[in-house]
Amino acid sequence: MMAIYGHESHDHIGCLLDTAGVGGDGEEFENGPMGGSGGPDGFGVVWAKTESGGGAGTPDPGCIVLPDITEWKKVVRFPDVSKFDWKALADSQLARADRNTQVIDYRCYNGPFLRLVDLMGMVEGLMAFFEEPEACEELLTAITDYRISTLEYIKKYFDPDIVTIFDDFAHERGLFIPPDTYKELIAPQHKRWSDAVRSYGMIPDMHVCGKAESVVPSFIDEGFEAWQIVQPENDVVGLQKEVGDRLAFFGCWDLQAKWIKPGTSPTDDELRAKVREAVDLYGPGGNLALMCVINNPAVDTIPAIITMNQEVIRYGTGYYCR
Question: How far is 111 from 116, CA to CA, in rounded Å?
Fold first, then answer.
């Protein structure tokens, strides 16, 4: 996996089991109690559990912390991350990881774009990018400064190989904001973040779901070594040809399992066949790790994930030596 992230010669296709994800919803100051299942985070944003989102937490639309972005300096209060029990979280999460066989990936939810819309609500947040770009830039800078301040604790208590910023600025059909707006307001903050991650000797990874292909090449200039979760709504093969030797691709899997026919449930053989199909489609592009997870009511999730990732290991080991 380190060779994949480093764009070095390697012999296999990576998979989800090669990584140990830490941080994430354990950061209660970012996601509220119990990873967003209910209650306020350190900013005062109230989180609620979603049925449509597979149980993931999302800001309660009835709770708007920042109605007017021009008032952000008066309204927004950043969490004091020095008071968070980093050691307890690290002891709990690292106990489930194996540094000998897995890369440690610290996941930072709510990057600058997401935190802005968390505070304002999606509609008002998106409007702010068009109506008040200068105020947006100020708030995005402050959010990034705050998020950078957590790296000291992440390094000290977790010492991860990878640090992934989650900043979902795209949906299934494109970006939430125009590419030029992204490059003007969001990309500079991502660059500052990546530089800070590198300064601590860790590798920066960019997480954005959805169809982000219009700005993926800029991830390289922003300093990221990898992009997850590379959904097939994107022209993955085309992007691999364009940037594949400079950017690792982690994902490349139909998370919704749209190939499953309504009213049917896939067999293990069908799951394994889909894995081999993905390996053969995206493997030639190199720098690839498949993220075989699934969110479909027709599938018994945990056994399916185990079956799929075991097939990545079976079929993907030695793939580049054949």
Answer: 9
CA distance 288 to 248: 6
Does pTM top 0.90 for this prediction? yes
Which domains are delineated in the chain? 20-248 (3.20.20.210)
Q: How far apart are CA 171 and CA 195, in angstroms?
A: 27
> Can you state the percent helix, strand and coil of the chain, rounding each to 5?
45, 15, 40
Q: Which amino acid is at 286?
A: G
Rounded to whole angstroms, the Cα distance separating 173 from 214 reads 11
Mean pLDDT by 10 residues, the chain (322 residues): 94 96 94 78 90 77 94 97 97 96 96 98 96 98 98 98 98 96 98 98 97 97 97 96 95 88 89 97 95 86 94 96 88
Name the 3-class secondary structure at 19: strand
Longest distance between any two alpha carbons in the chain, whole Å: 61
